[in-house]
Amino acid sequence: MERPQTNAPLARNAMAFVLAGGRGSRLMELTDRRAKPAVYFGGKSRIIDFALSNAVNSGIRKIGVATQYKAHSLIRHLNRGWNFFRPERNEIFDVFPASQRVSEDAWYRGTADAVYQNLDILKDYDAKYFVILAGDHIYKMDYELMLQQHVDSGADVTIGCLEVPRMEATGFGVMHVDETDRILQFVEKPKDPPAMPGKPDKALASMGIYVFDTKFLIEELERDANDPNSSRDFGKDIIPNIVKNGKAVAHHFENSCVRSTQESVSYWRDVGTVDAYWEANIDLTSIVPDLDLFDRNWPIWTYSEVTPPAKFVHNEDHRRGYALSSLVSGGCIVSGASLERALLFTGVRCNSYSHIENGVILPYVDVGRSARLSNVVVDARVQIPEGLVVGEDPELDAKRFMRTANGICLITQPMIDALEE
């Protein structure tokens, strides 16, 4: 298909629809009160901010977000941080909670159903292209480049894909492609993933990013809704049908990944386990982290609270407020405490003689005097008691907190309350 000769970016005629209803149960107690896309990341942001920022930075000005599981904190964040869209400029930002729009007993039954149930609204947006996004991954990507490939290739669907070591692809949807990147087969979590042409040790894994022409997507969703055997899912139903009966093309993340001069690799992370979440956050404290959050050319938009600057006080032996290789957000007070490779979110207070090492501390935590925390993730608003020691006795830690196989302890307020019982 020949692309029309125009200087206008394709993103101007596209709508992004972010699927943000998942619980993220592998994050354990971190998602007891919030959906995975609403989980904090990087000192100021939420996970969903990365997909949304990619859309805005790519030039997309029509965005919808589908929510379902424990959506209050997510919706509140979106209302506070993403309220700058202006209808008079033909900009749209809508939230679509599961609201039984199709029938009184039908919540969102799958990723495709989350779009289908809102088709009557989405048709009014008059977007030529639809970009379906997962709301729970950390990456920077220019969707305009993916849209360009979609139009130039004449594909029915274009699927964002990662190159991964072949035997590490068993947990993904995997594309079997030919030399032109046309998808010959889509296999969900295969035991023996198909290799890429010319790269026998690599496989193409789905990123959960799909580009459609809107008209074609509507037809597919309506067809799928009338199939009694469908599970109403893009990966399980919609995509395999298009691979079989239409034209599906793979888009390589490497071709549209956004990298600053400080980033040497194409960065994409699924922070879906406590270990992966801790590691991705702690990596940000490195001298040159794999993910550059200081890149002003591709900002990560979010809700920014009005807070005073971070404060460090006391300069006495054993009571010196300092931070080494750490990120400290606004509103934090490091009062005679020491930090090493720590990431403090907004409003954390570390009291005298306390020490945090390799710690991810979520907003408004209060760390009591003389506490020692290492290799931890502390949930928001937890009150750490004076003298608590975590990270030095594996057996004791496992009895009191959620301790992973890699030795990372997740600490929540109910766990702290249980210590006093």
Automatic annotation (TrEMBL):
Molecular function GO terms recorded: ATP binding; glucose-1-phosphate adenylyltransferase activity
Record keywords, A-Z: ATP-binding, Carbohydrate metabolism, Glycogen biosynthesis, Glycogen metabolism, Nucleotide-binding, Nucleotidyltransferase, Transferase
Family annotation (Pfam families): Hexapep_GlmU, NTP_transferase
Domain Glucose-1-phosphate adenylyltransferase/Bifunctional protein GlmU-like C-terminal hexapeptide: 308-411
Any single GO BP term: glycogen biosynthetic process
Binding annotation for alpha-D-glucose 1-phosphate: Y108, G173, E188, K189, S206
Residues of the signal peptide: none
InterPro entries the record matches: ADP-Glc_PPase (IPR011831), ADP_Glu_pyroP_CS (IPR005836), GlgC_bac (IPR023049), GlmU/GlgC-like_hexapep (IPR056818), NTP_transferase_dom (IPR005835), Nucleotide-diphossugar_trans (IPR029044), Trimer_LpxA-like_sf (IPR011004)
Pathway terms, separated by semicolons: Glycan biosynthesis; glycogen biosynthesis
Entry function: Involved in the biosynthesis of ADP-glucose, a building block required for the elongation reactions to produce glycogen. Catalyzes the reaction between ATP and alpha-D-glucose 1-phosphate (G1P) to produce pyrophosphate and ADP-Glc.
Family, per entry: Belongs to the bacterial/plant glucose-1-phosphate adenylyltransferase family.
UniProt subunit comment: Homotetramer.
NCBIfam families tied to this protein: glgC, PRK00725.1, PRK00844.1
Protein name: Glucose-1-phosphate adenylyltransferase
